[in-house]
Amino acid sequence: MAESPRRRLFGRAATGAHHAALRAVELIPPARGRPAREPGAPLPVRFLLAHAWGMGGTIRTTLATGNQLRRRHDVEVVSVLRRRGKPRLRHPKRLRVIALEDRRRPKPLARLLGRLPSLLIHPDDYAYAWSTLWTDVQLVRWLRRLEPCVLVTTRPAFNLLAARLAPPGVVRVGQEHMHAGAHRPRLTADIRRTYPRLDVMTVLTSPDERAYGEILAGTGTAVVRIPNPVPRIPGPGADPQARVILAAGRLTQQKGFDLLIEAFKPVAERHPDWALRIYGGGSHRDALAARIERGGLAGRARLMGVVDGLGPAMAEASVYALSSRFEGFPMVLLEAMSKGLAVAAFDCPNGPADAIEDGVDGRIVAAEDVDALGAALLELVEDEALRRRLGAAAVRAAQRYELKAIGARWDALLADLSRAGAV
Description:
- The structure is a single chain.
- By secondary structure, this protein is α/β, with parallel strands linked by helices.
- Helix content is 40%, strand content 16%.
- It contains 15 helices and 13 strands.
- The chain has a 7-stranded parallel β-sheet.
- The longest helix is centred in the N-terminal third of the chain and has 21 residues, at 5-25.
- It is globular.
- The mean pLDDT is 93.
């Protein structure tokens, strides 16, 4: 990932200050009088999340997983930050969600330290932009007082802090919600140095299972693949007769909608009654609109904007296209499969190849091969029987990612950790 001139100029110094601060904080002893853990007893589970009142895939997944696990475990979701009264994603009624730092009504000391940049959040983690010295104070207070538990941290900066600051008796489970190659070089270097202090590293995809297996080989840190659960989408399934190709995601370079528009051209030329609908908002909207206009696709390829849920859109489509240059985890692809859409996707890093068996429950083609994606879309457009067969198989394939199935994998991991006494 290219660095800006500002980051090249100040990044090394900021990282050095971060390392020095961490070494100093490690000298702070854990709180005394922490309860002892009975061997083999189930451990409480604590998820550390950036902002449980916001919007995003990691937030949605953590809330859903925590709510599933709390039926058998003592579970709490700990949000580092809270900025708003009402959460943008509904919190499950019986799931405990707390915040370490509430910015709605800051006290004088919080306002003062909140003007200073964080020293403990890694400068190359995207959480650094909203973190402050007051954030650091709250994190250290909470981490050093933790009782014996399974601590699940949800982003690299938190994984690094847990590895170095969680007290004895805490099982440290780091998560990767993007992919191993997505991080900036200095952050990657610290991942390689520090993740061996974790007990478990969970990943979403097979490629990351291999990548972290290599990074952590011989360290004693287990690498476990547990995909994100796919939420149940209300409403009817896909309509195999619908002449609509659906795509969804942020309108950014990553999602490759520029490539999809090019791949749609042969469909538009041969089948003028078919449409491409792209849902989402983002910085590339104007560029994509101009590409549609230049390609003579106005009215045929449409940017639909942001919607609250994709259920109605999926019910009006028969084909889903994933054109991403990379993915952390292809959640919307799996949602589309769960609704019975016939899918065509690039074999990009990371995840589509885990979800799709080519020719069985979808079509998968070489990454960024526009001609191949266009041919796969044409094949689906021209064969309703194929759409029906692949869509039905996709529903069955997506069942592997249902919340109950993913919850069972977490249950098995937590049982193993409690039995092993990994702390």
